[in-house]
TrEMBL record:
Ranges annotated as spanning the membrane: none
Free-text function comment from the UniProt entry: Component of the exocyst complex involved in the docking of exocytic vesicles with fusion sites on the plasma membrane.
Keyword Nucleotide-binding appears in the UniProt entry: no
Species: Cirrhinus molitorella
Protein name per Swiss-Prot or TrEMBL: Exocyst complex component 2
InterPro entries attached to this UniProt entry: EXOC2/Sec5 (IPR029175), EXOC2/Sec5_N_dom (IPR039481)
Keywords: Exocytosis, Protein transport, Transport
The family this protein is said to belong to: Belongs to the SEC5 family.
Subunit structure: Component of the exocyst complex.
Residue span, Exocyst complex component EXOC2/Sec5 N-terminal domain: 1-687
Length: 697
């Protein structure tokens, strides 16, 4: 058009025609724009909005994700959050689109807040093993920095140690405000046995819910039960958490082997020594807290400041210590069942050994105190074996003591027999001998007590007919010699029966030094027996022996100048009656003592007669006959009780006399002897062997 117009020469018509046309067209365009601008603007806006809505609809998952994450976190649906996050990460993790990058950064901000929330929940205490595993798995899936599982293990370790320390401090505080447990009454060994095992094997450590029962046991015992409860309730989950950590099940329920899981398992294996140290610290803390409460002497001063502080003025009895041993054993069994290596539990085994030794020595010591009080229970009632109830009470006390030691002395799995330890064996032997000697000392004290110190209101002799012996009983309480006899009879029974029974019981219960204990005890008993026997003989023989010489020379009697014998003189009959009264006194208590006592008294009498005969310068015929008659009468009357010493004395006495020359003298001697035996037949019956038969009830 431009070229055509140029050739037609139209330039001169109002300028260039194309310029004019362009102007017309521009004006037309402007007019059109003016007419349709609003409509087109709305169309563009609609298209833009439609495109934005399409994008939102297509990528609504990402745009809704920040709000959905917040809602699901509030509901606790962490699995949903993690799944959505994984999906968003795979789709938009590397996007370059600004709007997507902006939304995704919001998602990451909320996920970081979730990681912090989960870690806080993970490290919260107390919490269950299930929750801990759940939170660790969430954090693993969220690729949390560091090692949350190990952080949880460290937190749990500190929590357990703090619980144990708090347990001790609570009891110490309770003790200071007056909540001191009542000590078990040790009035008898039987009382100690009755409370020996309130916690049954396999039972729980739960303390009584009833507050009225709360203070029945000593504080240290309740503390050990509570402390064990704390450890047994916490340590198994702690151990299981570690096992799950090591084998990787903590990070993946399905057991899939991802690079991250393998890396975490490798970290766990590298931390084995650290975890072993944690278990050692927990078991060591348990042991030291128990030692602080029950065995303070086994700790250093520094350890006592941390683990001590208990009131140990009233020592625990063997029964309470048995309960403590039972509790600690249950703890050890529970931990062993988790397959915790034995070397980590060795400190508990060492504690158990020390507690068993302490229980043994404490029980022996308390038994010694019980035995000291047995003297107060002597009732002086003699049975027809010649003994009181005291030997039986002593034997019962010892047997019950051994029964109470059965549980602590028993060797459970992994334990040793503490009596095989030389130090323990020596101490136990020494303590047992001490108990025996204390009892022997009780017998000695009873024998030397003044009449006023003894309650005689219940004294009696258990014989066939109480009426027959009523007079004897009335006199019985007033004579210390009778008490000597009773104790001598008890000594004899102890040596022949009680001590031998105890030796058997001691051997059955593992006391390898039983033979030595009994040997030393019997030696001490024999010393006492000998002393009491000599005392009794002295009291009884001295008056008889002392009456012989005055009796012989009564009425200015002279061996050189006397009448023919008409019978045995009264002094000898009096001496025999005195011997008979001793016989009766001894027989009333114990027929078995009769030969021993009478033989000794007769030895003294025979020795005195021999001395008196040897002191006579010369005898007349009648004097020699009279002397021979009296010596033979005395010797024949007490013949069953003659010993080699007394026979020798009588022989010496007869040798000091002139020999009989005529048959008439011999006949006269025989007649007078027969007359004497006939006249005193009733009295002399007691010396016959038949009288040794037991009195029948």
């Amino acid at each position: 058009i431009h070229q055509k117009l140029e050739s037609d020469g139209t330039e001169k018509v109002e300028g260039s025609m194309t310029q004019r046309l362009e102007n017309v067209l521009n004006r037309a365009s402007e007019t059109a724009d003016t007419l349709f601008q609003e409509v087109l603007g709305r169309k563009d806006k609609a298209d833009s909005t439609r495109n934005a809505l399409n994008v939102l609809q297509r990528f609504k998952f990402l745009f809704n994700l920040p709000l959905n994450i917040e809602r699901n976190i509030q509901k606790g649906d962490y699995d949903v959050v993690i799944n959505d996050y994984e999906k968003a990460k795979s789709l938009f993790g590397n996007t370059e689109v600004p709007v997507f990058k902006k939304v995704y950064s919001e998602v990451e901000t909320r996920i970081e807040a979730l990681r912090k929330l989960l870690l806080d929940k993970l490290l919260e205490t107390p919490s269950t093993l299930h929750d801990q595993k759940r939170y660790i798995r969430y954090l693993s899936d969220l690729h949390a920095p560091g090692d949350p599982a190990w952080q949880c293990i460290i937190a749990q370790h500190k929590w357990i140690l703090q619980l144990m320390q708090n347990c001790k401090e609570d009891f110490i505080k309770e003790q200071k405000v007056g909540g001191v447990g009542l000590e078990l009454d040790r009035s008898s060994a039987l009382n100690r046995i009755s409370l020996s095992a309130p916690v049954k094997r396999g039972g729980s450590f739960q303390t009584p819910k009833d507050d009225s029962c709360r203070y029945k046991s000593p504080q240290q015992v309740r503390f050990v039960v509570k402390l064990s409860e704390v450890v047994i309730s916490q340590l198994p989950n702690f151990w299981k958490l570690w096992i799950s950590y090591v084998n990787g099940s903590l990070f993946s329920e399905t057991g899939e082997k991802s690079g991250q899981v393998e890396k975490l398992k490798k970290n766990a294996r590298q931390r084995q020594n650290d975890f072993k140290g944690m278990i050692e610290e927990v078991t060591r803390r348990l042991v030291q807290l128990v030692r602080g409460a029950l065995l303070p002497s086994s700790l250093t001063e520094q350890q006592l400041r941390q683990y001590g502080g208990w009131d140990t003025k009233t020592p625990l009895s063997g029964a309470w210590l048995t309960q403590v041993i039972h509790t600690v054993r249950l703890s050890h069994e529970s931990l062993s069942a988790l397959e915790i290596p034995n070397d980590l539990l060795q400190v508990i085994q060492d504690l158990l050994q020390d507690l068993r030794v302490h229980c043994l020595l404490t029980t022996l010591q308390h038994t010694e105190e019980d035995v000291k009080r047995l003297a107060e229970k002597e009732d002086w009632v003699v049975d027809n074996e010649g003994i009181t109830s005291l030997p039986a009470q002593f034997e019962q006390c010892m047997v019950q003591m051994l029964q109470s030691l059965k549980e602590p002395m028993e060797c459970k799995h992994g334990e040793i027999n503490i009596l095989n330890l030389d130090v323990v064996q020596d101490k136990a032997c020494e303590q047992c001998v001490s108990i025996m000697k204390v009892f022997i000392k009780c017998l000695e004290q009873l024998s030397t007590k003044a009449d006023g110190d003894i309650d005689t209101s219940h004294l009696s002799v258990d014989l066939a007919s109480p009426d027959l012996f009523k007079g004897i009983q009335e006199d019985f309480s007033s004579k210390p010699e009778q008490r000597l006899l009773i104790i001598l009879s008890n000594c004899q029974y102890l040596e022949r029966h009680t001590f031998l029974n105890l030796a058997e019981h001691l051997e059955k219960n593992g006391f390898t030094t039983a033979e030595k204990i009994i040997r030393v005890s019997i030696e001490a008993l024999r010393h006492l027996d000998e002393y009491l026997f000599e005392t009794y003989i002295e009291k009884k023989s001295d008056p008889i022996v002392g009456s012989l010489e005055p009796g012989i020379y009564a009425g200015y009697f002279d061996w050189k100048d006397c009448l023919p014998p008409t019978g045995v003189r009264s002094y000898l009959k009096d001496a025999l009656v005195s011997i008979i009264s001793v016989h009766a006194e001894v027989f009333t208590v114990s027929k078995e003592l009769v030969p021993r006592v009478l033989s000794k008294i007769i030895e003294a009498v025979a020795e005195e007669m021999s001395r008196l005969m040897q002191c006579v310068s010369s005898f007349s015929k009648n004097g020699a006959l009279q002397a021979r008659l009296e010596i033979c009468a005395l010797r024949d009357a007490i013949d069953p009780y003659l010993t080699s010493e007394s026979r020798a004395s009588f022989k010496q006495a007869l040798e000091a006399l002139p020999q009989l020359q005529s048959g008439a003298d011999k006949k006269l001697l025989e007649e007078q002897l027969n007359k004497f035996k006939s006249s005193m037949k009733l009295q002399l019956n007691c010396f016959k062997p038949a009288s040794f038969q037991p009195v029948k009830r």
